[in-house]
Design goal:
The chain is mainly beta. The protein has a domain of 27 residues. A hairpin with a 5-residue loop joins strand 1 and strand 2. The chain is extended, with a radius of gyration of 23 Å. The chain starts with a strand and ends with a strand.
Length: 208
């Protein structure tokens, strides 16, 4: 298992040697400095606490400032824990995009775009009511949502109108099309969740 933090820069397309156009998402992956190392003896599990992005020293509180000072690294905007196969990395080292290679399959996790309040047709794909046979106010309505005398309540999880998006989403088994190590860029085939500039986590997939 290998993981790295990155920033979604947007989408474009590249052309293969045969002339095929491949849609890709451009991700700025790392470098992620290791600011703390979690161990089974001290914390009950093995992980690295890594940073990503830049943050001005004036905007860092004292606990974070002490953590970065102990690691000898500049403050970062994000701090997350990641798992890594190579347990030999120490505090102060960096996880870079070179840990991945072209053709590898990865899972990408991010926060999807927030779409605000949405009705059942947009949010859940309902077909809606009839739009003919006279004037009707049921065209985009959800219809019946429960029972009358028993159980006299709406079940939890009922598909209804509400907030859409802004959820944690993982897209599985995406292919790395290209690695540009001198610019810390990773080109992944297909779309990944989130808006441009949002934080994403890339990890090697365990799917076949």
């Amino acid at each position: 298992m290998r993981e790295i933090l990155g920033k979604k820069l947007g989408m474009t397309r590249i052309f293969t040697e045969s002339g095929e156009a491949v849609p890709v998402t451009v991700i700025e992956a790392g470098p992620c400095p290791i600011v703390q190392k979690k161990t089974v003896d001290n914390d009950g599990y093995d992980a690295y606490q890594v940073g990503f992005g830049q943050k001005h020293q004036r905007r860092v509180n004292k606990p974070w400032a002490g953590l970065f000072a102990a690691s000898g690294k500049e403050p970062t905007r994000y701090l997350r824990e990641i798992r890594f196969d190579d347990g030999d990395l120490e505090v102060g080292a960096e996880v870079k995009v070179t840990a991945f290679h072209t053709g590898e399959r990865v899972d990408v996790t991010g926060i999807s775009r927030g779409l605000g309040f949405a009705g059942v047709m947009k949010r859940h794909g309902f077909s809606g009511g009839q739009a003919t046979h006279g004037q009707s106010d049921r065209m985009r309505a959800p219809g019946s949502i429960g029972q009358s005398s028993y159980p006299s309540r709406v079940f939890k999880g009922m598909k209804m109108a509400g907030r859409m998006g802004k959820d944690k989403v993982t897209v599985l088994n995406l292919e790395i099309v290209q690695i540009i190590d001198d610019q810390n860029l990773m080109l992944v085939k297909g779309a990944v969740p989130g808006h441009r500039g949002s934080l994403v986590k890339i990890r090697t997939t365990n799917r076949g």
